[in-house]
Amino acid sequence: MFKRDIPEKWDCGQIWSKFFEAFAYKGPCYVTQKDYEGLINYMAEEVPRDKGLLWSGSREISHKFSDFRYTNRFITLEDTLAGFLVNKLSWCGTEKDPGIDFTQCTWECSIQAPYWSTANKKFAQKLRGTVHIILNGTRQHLDDKNVYPSFMQNRYYLGPYVLPELNSKNIDKIVIIVAHTLHLKPLESCGEKTVLLLTDLIRNKGIPVDCHDDTDAVRHLLCVDDPSTDVCKFQAI
């Protein structure tokens, strides 16, 4: 949570009550976005101008890039109370007492899409000034190596829920950064395929877009774990 200076704004009992009421005594696949609106609205926070950071397929590098804990360089959804509270948490309801299934959630309904889609929409509505988006230009599954687009217009959250909420009256510019994992062949870059699609969709909303492949800041972060590889041997000044 980035509003550490006003902890009195939230009542933990109220948060738990609204959270419980949203999904308890309901089947895990029968919870809707509307069920979570009261909770998300209660935890609403303003995002400081020029600090908003969106991401897709690039969780680790995006949170290293935001460096919220130490420098507050940028703010992701997971740095707000709505994201921090349930980040990496799995939960689901049941029609039986006590209303919560503490042992097993149906896999296809355990990703909590109604919650995260609502939280993403509300976060997008708060963005002002320059907004950054980090995409994965080498997006593939770690186990089966299946390849995925850098931007998915109709899947997950950036395309279906965040993009429609971006407001040209509030946002001056969007900067897309396409990050490429070291030692993997780039699959997409600026001006190509779905990165180009995202760029065009944003521009069609009247918002200027800049796109960069592997900015110095991102490359240095990637090289921390493998500094001796050739691509990390930066020329001395």
From TrEMBL:
InterPro entries: ADP-ribosyl_cyclase. Belongs to the ADP-ribosyl cyclase family. This is ADP-ribosyl cyclase/cyclic ADP-ribose hydrolase. It comes from the Eukaryota. One of its GO terms (cellular component) is plasma membrane. It comes from Clytia hemisphaerica. Keywords: Disulfide bond, Hydrolase, NAD, Transferase. The keyword Mitochondrion does not apply. Gene3D superfamilies: ADP Ribosyl Cyclase, Chain A, domain 1, NAD(P)-binding Rossmann-like Domain. It holds the Pfam family Rib_hydrolayse. One of its GO terms (molecular function) is transferase activity.
